[in-house]
Each structure stands twice: as C-alpha cells, then as structure tokens.
Amino acid sequence: MKNRKQRLLVSIRGKKEGRAAVKGGAHIVDVEFPASALGTPYPLNIRAVRNAVPKSIAVATNIGEEQVGRSTACQAALGVAYAGADIVKLGLARMPLCEAKEFGPALVRTVKRWFPKKQCVPALFADERLAKWYIDPIKHGPDLAKHMKANGLLVDTFDKGLGMGLMDYYTLADIKRFVAKCHKRNLEAWLAGSISKEELPDLWLTGASIHVMKQFRYRGAGQLSQIYLNSNP
Fold first, then answer.
1. 9-231: CATH class
2. Contact at 8 Å (CB) between 29 and 18?
3. At what angle do helices 97-114 and 70-83 cross, to 10 degrees?
4. Which end of the chain has fewer surrounding CB within 10 Å, N or C?
5. How far apart are the C-alpha atoms of 44 and 1, rounded to whole Å?
6. How far apart are CA 106 and CA 218, in angstroms?
7. What is the dihedral angle through the alpha carbons of 148, 154, 35, 25, rounded to the nearest 10 degrees?
8. pLDDT per residue over 199-221, tens digit each?
9. pLDDT digits (tens, 9 = 90+) for 29-68
10. Where are the domains of the chain?
11. pTM for this structure?
C-alpha cells in the first residue's frame, strides 16, 4: 500500500460543493446529478466546476449508466471531455459482453483522439441480474477494460432503491481478486456502491486505497453521494 498513490474523490453537484470538497482535501471532484446510479450532469455544469476548482484538481463525470447507440455515446464521451472532465466514466449497463467488446473501444478511442491525456473508466454493475445476464464485473470486467484500452474499471451498484451495497453482492475475497486482476492488467480498480465506514478498514486489506473517505450530503437533496475506492496500479 505504501507504493500506491491514494486519492480522495468526492461526488458533487455544482461549483459550490466542488469548492467545499477541495477545501476538505479532495483530489478529484466527481460531477453528478443524483437522479440515477451514475447521475449524468449537464455539460455546462461540468464546465462551471472545472472553472471553479484549481487546475491541480481532477474533474470526473460520466455519460450515464446505459448507452443507446455507439455514435451517440461517442458524442457524449467527447462532449463531457470537452466540457472539462479529466476522467470520463462510461456506463455499460444492460450490454452483452460481445457487444461491449465492439462498442467500448470506440468510446475510448474517440476521447483519446482529441484528449489523449484524459482518462476513460468503464462502469459495470454488481447487481445480480446485471452481472449474471450481461457482464460479470469481476470475471469479465478487467479483460474488457484492457481490451477497450481504458485507464481503469469501476464496479458499482445500479439500483440504489434496493438498499443493497457493494458488499451485499461480494465478499472481501471477491474484491481482492477484482483489484488484483485490474492491477495485473495495469488498470486502476474503482469500487463504489453504498460502502459504509465500517466496511472501509477491511476494504483496505483488499489492496484498494480510499478514494472517498466520507459520505458527502448534497444540499437540499436529502441523498448521500456514493463512496468510491480507487486503487492505482
């Protein structure tokens, strides 16, 4: 763990929360709109956050959990990168593995063509019906992300209304295997999904470094942000 760079990510809605997150020690601010699993924001909001926080602070965002078409998804990925996101999360929910192998590389290739230094992180979901019927994040995710030439891989929970967290789907041994498989492929391993403070000490032992160390409450929304863990290879 001493050789791994630890970064704190805090999910925020706008520039005021972005500044507060930076003041609290965040290295990455993740622009979201808390209405779905990943919470897709408007490009102008991404730009407002990028302009509001120091250049040394990375801005992350996403293009949604599900993608309708390849060209539309490529446009979205390029759009949020242009709007100021340094890290683009690419949701691949309800997409068969064979389709993702053809679909995914185009997303990464599009972003890297215009912004070679920006990071692309596909997002897969632990929910049993998604992992079983579509793509298993641990079994198939790391190889898929490597095939896409992505920078990392995020495993999250999709249906927040179920009250199920990441550790309701996986054991610590599962998570350790996920992290190891990502690192072996030179990928960052990202974890999310209603992770509690009580679960954090054990998750340290999997080889992941803390990405978000506390829950961040959106003003007036009555909803807590996701907790992320990130482990750099």
1. alpha beta
2. yes
3. 40
4. N
5. 37
6. 34
7. -120
8. 877 877 787 744 543 334 444 33
9. 999 987 676 888 999 999 999 999 999 999 999 999 999 9
10. 9-231
11. 0.88
